[in-house]
Design brief:
254 residues; alpha/beta; 39% helix; 22% strand; 8 helices
Length: 254
């Protein structure tokens, strides 16, 4: 039986999903972040399948989402995207500390994963923390600066944002430490899985695929340690096949 615990870890609303009989034991663990405007509960199907493989999965709630929602407007939410992601980096560290205190992570075997915004956050965590031993990026973008500049350009054209050049550069500068696309060497031997739909127009696949190619060129990685699943007919929604492929890969690599 799979157990779901609804608790707070260092004040962060989270779901912990694991086998009922093993929920108090140290297990290989995945911190799985949801997407923008989504919620932790919406990724329970990923957690259930990973838990069936013997893993523990933590589903935290992102800032301004789900249990942490503050009723802010859609406009403010959109403008807060990178604040949410950066808070997610800090929250990841806090969640990990809470798990370590409870001795729930087996032998440091901790992976990160996430969909869309959660995939972006996963990429940043790989740049920030060497204790993240691997990751699964589903519809995410490891090139934070490129993606941020695209967002700023789009929001400016839509009349939602009006930043000076100096303000733009200040915002982008705050993201650079977490842009793993410029720090390929940090991946080293850490396993990394990508899934993307080729027709995705929300988070286009090109930057993620370019990073995957750069990784193979810059680092001597085993073919199965860095994989990219690109589905030609899919958009911004992970297919069941993609989900199952990720689950089996993570269970094998963690």
């Amino acid at each position: 039986m799979i157990a779901v615990q609804d608790i707070k870890l260092r004040g962060i609303p989270s779901l912990i999903v694991s086998d009922e009989k093993r929920k108090s034991l140290s297990l290989p663990t995945v911190i799985f972040w949801h997407g923008f405007t989504s919620a932790k509960e919406h990724n329970l199907h990923y957690a259930f399948l990973l838990a069936k493989e013997g893993l523990r999965v933590i589903l935290p709630a992102a800032l301004y989402h789900g249990d942490r929602g503050e009723g802010i407007s859609q406009k403010k939410l959109s403008l807060s995207f990178w604040d949410i992601v950066l808070q997610g980096i800090r929250d990841t560290s806090a969640v990990r500390d809470a798990l370590e205190e409870r001795k729930l992570i087996a032998d440091g075997r901790l992976f990160m994963a996430g969909t869309s915004m959660g995939g972006i956050l996963t990429s940043g965590a790989l740049a920030a923390f060497n204790w993240v031993k691997g990751g699964a990026v589903l519809m995410g973008n490891p090139s934070w600066e490129t993606f941020a500049r695209q967002q700023i350009s789009r929001l400016t054209q839509e009349g939602v944002l009006n930043l000076s050049v100096e303000e733009t550069e200040k915002q982008v500068a705050a993201l650079r430490p977490y842009d793993i696309s410029t720090q390929v060497e940090k991946i080293k031997d850490r396993p990394l899985f990508f899934w993307h739909g080729k027709l995705d127009d929300v988070v286009p696949y090109h930057s993620a695929y370019a990073f995957y190619q750069a990784l193979h060129e810059a680092v001597d990685v085993q073919e199965d340690n860095a994989v990219f699943h690109l589905e030609p007919a899919s958009g911004h929604k992970v297919t069941r096949e993609g989900m199952l492929a990720m689950v089996k890969w993570v269970a094998r690599k963690i």
